[in-house]
Amino acid sequence: MSKKQTLQELSEILDTYCVNCLLKKHFREEFGKRYAHSFCINQCTVGQKIKEVGEKLL
């Protein structure tokens, strides 16, 4: 998979699942931006998929 295709796939995932994510919005309001970001990276299944796809860029 080329770099351009990988970036496009990441963009599609973010646009589909993360733009209007209610969990991210809730955690950001209740616990702050750092907690919400940490949750997305470490516990959210979409965040794990993003990490998996992103590793292809390395």
UniProtKB/TrEMBL annotation:
Pfam families: zf-C2HCIx2C
Alphabetically ordered keywords of this record: Metal-binding, Zinc, Zinc-finger
UniProt protein name: Zinc-finger domain-containing protein
Domain of life, source organism: Bacteria
InterPro entries (alphabetical): DUF2602
Species this protein is from: Metabacillus bambusae
A GO term for molecular function: zinc ion binding
